[in-house]
């Protein structure tokens, strides 16, 4: 590898050719601010906040560190007067067309623009007075709200929607001062074929994009004495919630999280891990049945509502390949309002079923058709990790000091297999653990299926399962899904079973997860760090297979009969609809 | 919020066939979108959502991407041209002689903004750069008719002629 020598702020450094100034500086623990740049997603050098002084023969020139490659003998200054002045001026110019209502902004405290204005001592918020654009707020989508008045046109959202997700329903419209991010014909997002993944929200540096806040509905339910309020928490929340309380990325806070939920006043705190196990029972059974009876193969997982919507919009021909299993969130809701309600003699009408999810698409999913096992919506309110963190803060709960508690019974028991649902490859691994043991009747020696782990966008593996050749693929990020499905459609690939998650890396990197600024995302792999916490926890558990979950066994024995039974189909399975590729536009 | 033209789409089978031929011609070349949009506008006179959807499907380019290009360039129009195309000159001479007020009066009477077309398809409104009739400033045109040395009070009478 060819190395390049340069100095940054007087310190010599040697880095491989092709490294950007931004990356080279980081090796010296120098943080250069970025707004538009987001690693692997957006590198357009447009916002100019990352400018550094490239000094040649004593003459300085400003270059964009995020895209400027190092060169031999280069002399870079990252905080010279020229640089500091330019960065402050850039911030002042952004503020000249920015709705500065920081006090009420959902991103106050996590806003990257706000932090930089503070760090760069921007004292005059109105240094450049003049015309300001005023845009209507777009609240047409079920899962999110767009406020262009707070948009700084960094285009991270556009890049993630197009490149990572192949959805492309937002982009830059018009030109010059009128340029704004929007959908075709400036229709509301709710009319488009947006899949609700929320990746644009976690990419946004400011308060321009935010999830639809449903916390008021939860507060109201908790305050209503006539309601029995049950909450389920998705597997990945326990390894990300801590980040909202300044804990290290990849810290498992399950015990504190359960305590906090109990203190908030939920009547029962349950674990979606349980219904992930239930999903595996149904899905493994469905797969075996399809293989044995010539059903549509490959079968594709249906846990990720962003992926489901993407399939309905863009690959309606593939709908027969989708597992008919409801997602774990919905299976859980179905069990709460049927099994749990009957067992505890509670009228399902009096139950408020709340879910805490890493996902904004879950907000859309709760309103889907054919998700009402008890004749009522399976889940009433779905909130994201971020909304839960806000509730905990508002309730004055000192999260980091909380003692641990355990989930309530009976729906609080989950296996390690259910837990790893939160990472790409996790559903596949959990399904394999159960499918192999079911088909061979023998106990697995090694439970880890490492070929399907890791953050690669598309992973493939082949297994011999009880004399059956099983070819599997695991895919996360919808652009990868599109690529994979085209191969399936053309016959180039012949898998038996495919796991698809809409968000890159799976739920641990979902659109509802805590914000991490570009200064972290550009240098750390959130997906891997959060997933590692799930795999470590799984490895330390005694119960690691869905079919060994005693509560699952009990549920089938006393209520559902057996996987794939008529009753299981009625309560735990659903249907899909072909949608127009242009949505309702 | 939506920027769709309120004028119903009146595209014909022949126009669509021509559009598809144009797309087929350009499909395999680099950067097919601009020439296709230009020819599509020549066929239809404007680029409504119905036309952009066909282009999106055929070229496999997202609709938003196409809309972004259409709204970036001034040469493309989202609204059809009316039976009577009104143009008001906003060149320097006309502007200092008060063509801005003329334009505002027209907008008030026919109820549309620059770049739009009335829902009945009768009038469309444009603001132009200098049309070279500075001696007659301020000037407006309706199709090929030129009206010069205007005052705001003239506007209503001129438009009345075209209201049928």
Can you tell me about this structure?
The complex is a heterodimer of chains A (585) and B (164). With 585 residues, chain A is of the alpha/beta class. Chain A folds into three domains: 3-79, Ubiquitin-like (UB roll); 129-211, 2-Layer Sandwich (Alpha-Beta Plaits), CATH 3.30.70.20; 217-572, 3-Layer(aba) Sandwich (Rossmann fold). Chain A has 19 helices and 17 strands. In chain A, the strands form five sheets. Chain A has a five-stranded mixed sheet, sandwiched between helices. In chain A, strands 11-10-13-14 form a four-stranded parallel sheet, with helices on both faces. In chain A, helix 8 (272-293) crosses helix 10 (328-343) and helix 8 (272-293) crosses helix 14 (426-440). Chain B has seven helices and four strands, in the order ααααβααβββα. Chain B starts with 12 loop residues before the first helix and ends with a helix. Chain B is 43% helix and 11% strand. Chain B has helices spanning 13-26, 33-44, 49-59, 63-72, 92-96, 99-110, 155-160; strands spanning 84-89, 123-128, 140-142, 145-147. With 164 residues, chain B is an alpha+beta fold. A four-stranded mixed sheet of chain B has the order 2-1-3-4, with helices on one face. Chain A binds chain B through residues 136, 138, 162, 168-175, 182-188, 191-192, 581-582, 585, and chain B through 1-4, 49, 52-53, 56-57, 62-68, 71-72, 78.
